[in-house]
Design brief:
The protein has helices at about 10-25, 25-45, 90-100; strands spanning about 5, 55, 60, 70-75, 80-85. The chain is an alpha+beta fold and about 110 residues long. A 5-stranded mixed beta sheet has the order 1-5-4-3-2. Strand 3 (about 60) and strand 4 (about 70-75) form a beta hairpin.
Length: about 110
């Protein structure tokens, strides 16, 4: 089964922030970052059940080179990507507030 992907504006902002960070270091690094995010999302699309549920119905797929996690849920035939976050940040302390802010249990449109 091939799923549809939904990436809300807030998640696109997460990706843009990572992209801007890497472009300040080196433009080619930025392109590699964006390519890896796209490839990881495609891996999720093809086989989302490969990634185990980590918390509150949310699964996480990790990028191979950059320290990022893509947090998503599956609802019917759509994968909703809620966060793309740098995993070395203090995410654990902010996790519950992010979940509340982004209304994890309602699919984004």
């Amino acid at each position: 089964m091939r799923y549809k992907i939904s990436v809300p504006d807030e998640t696109q902002l997460d990706i843009r922030e990572g992209s801007e960070y890497y472009s300040k270091i080196f433009e080619a690094l930025n392109q590699k970052f964006l390519s890896e995010i796209i490839n990881t999302i495609e891996i999720i699309r093809v086989n989302p059940l490969h990634h185990q549920i980590r918390y509150k119905k949310i699964r996480i797929a990790f990028t191979e080179i950059f320290p990022y996690g893509i947090h998503f849920i599956i609802s019917n035939e759509t994968i909703y990507i809620y966060f793309v976050c740098y995993i070395l940040k203090d995410f654990i302390n902010n996790q519950s507030s992010l979940i509340t802010q982004r209304k994890v249990f309602r699919p984004c449109t």
